[in-house]
Design goal:
It is a single chain. A hairpin with a 2-residue loop joins strand 16 and strand 17. Helices cover about 15% and strands about 20% of the residues. It starts with 11 loop residues before the first strand and ends in an 8-residue tail after the last helix. It has a single domain, classed as 3-Layer(aba) Sandwich (Rossmann fold), CATH 3.40.50. The radius of gyration is 19 Å and the shape is globular. The strands form 4 sheets. It has a 7-stranded parallel β-sheet with strand order 6-7-5-9-11-13-14, sandwiched between helices. A 4-stranded mixed β-sheet has the order 2-1-10-12, with no helix packed on it. The relative contact order is 0.23. The chain is of the alpha/beta class and about 375 residues long. The protein is built from 6 helices and 17 strands.
Length: about 375
């Protein structure tokens, strides 16, 4: 059983059995099951999914009655210009657009919802596990940012665009830092909601996305626990296996940010023992990232290509993409933002929450260009 924690943080944090959040300030769907201090090395074995735990394909709905506790998160507008933002310059998607722009691909964004935006013309409602909407409501200004990095349309005079602008987006809201169940105490909810969403709703959302025909599933959320505590995420493991092997979808997930996953694993490679099994020295589990055979896990790199110290390492990290210098769609206007507003002031957009959609866009481009490749390929 997991304890209650905020879903936000680095990529959204997820609370196994309880609350989830995005993966960086970019919503952290991270589940921290206990207070994390300095810990020594532990070990864990690669998880083996149990298909018998696959969630039923029910219609999306919150597991408890919920209500909005906080005002919706706002962003800091940034002037649009012909100059491409840093992440777009580094990825350089435009070079392959003459060959592929992602047409025919369906990317599910499992996040805090995706607000409708003039630069996201192809959004399909996928359902809501937080409230009673259809997935096209984003009170957290996170899921819309993620969708923008994947699918925002190019506009004359603007250097910003999504990496795969011809894809269809399925919007699924499965977490929010601004909602909680109505049973939460008033003192707990007075200023900061514990958030809503957990590995149970995430598992159901993954199955939902796969059943709706997603060819790529973006999860900019992560549940983190100490390896010594373990994590009750069996249905989530079954869901990513189902998506990959049954429905042929590529599941792309954020690796997590250290502001949420506070106990860090050592680097995957041990220079003192290059033959050592990195699974023998992990201290932190990140889910669904650690289901390595079924998830393409994305870390965060800086402008020079070096790994960010804020990106959570692990033997399951497969690829990396820019996680800072991020600009994306303003969920509440037709413009762009480069920061979210907090009580301490503007917080620049950064984290593996934003690295993941850059990779999801890349996957969509590859699948559109090479339709003969299955999800594992």
């Amino acid at each position: 059983m997991l304890g209650r924690r905020s879903l936000l943080g680095g990529p959204w944090t997820v609370t196994p059995r309880r609350r989830l959040g995005p993966a960086s300030l970019v919503v952290t769907l991270i589940v921290t099951l206990s207070t994390v201090g300095a810990v020594g090395s532990a070990s864990a074995a690669p998880p083996v999914p149990d298909s018998g735990l696959l969630p039923a394909g029910d219609e999306p709905a919150a597991l408890e009655p919920t209500e909005q506790r906080n005002t919706c998160t706002q962003g800091q507008p940034v002037a649009d210009s012909p100059q491409r933002p840093y992440a777009q310059r580094l990825m350089d998607f435009e070079r392959v657009w003459p060959l592929t722009r992602g047409a025919g691909q369906v990317v599910a964004v499992i996040d805090t919802g995706v607000n409708r935006h003039p630069r996201l013309p192809r959004i399909t409602p996928g359902g809501d596990y937080v409230a009673s909407d259809d997935g096209t409501v984003d009170c957290d200004a996170h899921g819309t940012l993620v969708a923008g990095l994947i699918a925002a349309q190019p506009v004359e005079g603007s250097g910003f665009a999504g990496g795969a602008p011809d894809v269809e987006v399925i919007a699924i809201r499965q977490s929010s830092r601004n909602y909680s169940d109505r049973s939460a105490g008033e003192e707990e909810a007075a200023q900061n909601s514990p958030g809503y969403g957990d590995v149970r709703t995430l598992a159901s959302a993954v199955r939902r996305a796969a059943d709706l025909g997603a060819t790529v599933i973006n999860i900019s959320e992560v549940a983190c626990t100490l390896a010594s505590d373990g994590i009750d995420d069996g249905p989530l493991g079954a869901a990513v296996q189902y998506a990959t092997d049954v429905e042929d979808a590529v599941v792309v997930a954020a690796a997590g940010n250290r502001d949420v996953c506070q106990a860090l694993n050592p680097p995957a490679a041990n220079p003192l023992d290059p033959h050592a099994d990195p699974w023998d020295s992990i201290t932190t589990i990140a889910s669904p990232a650690w289901y390595d055979d079924y998830v393409l896990t994305v870390g965060w790199v800086e402008a020079d290509g070096t790994p960010s110290g804020e990106s959570v390492p692990g033997p399951w990290v497969d690829v990396a993409a820019p996680g800072s210098g991020i600009v994306s769609l303003d969920p509440f206007s037709s413009g762009l933002i480069d920061a979210q507003i907090s009580a301490q002031g503007p917080v620049p957009l950064s984290g593996t929450s934003f690295s993941a959609p850059l990779v999801s866009a890349t996957v969509a481009l590859v699948r559109a260009r090479h339709p003969q490749l299955d999800a594992r390929a």
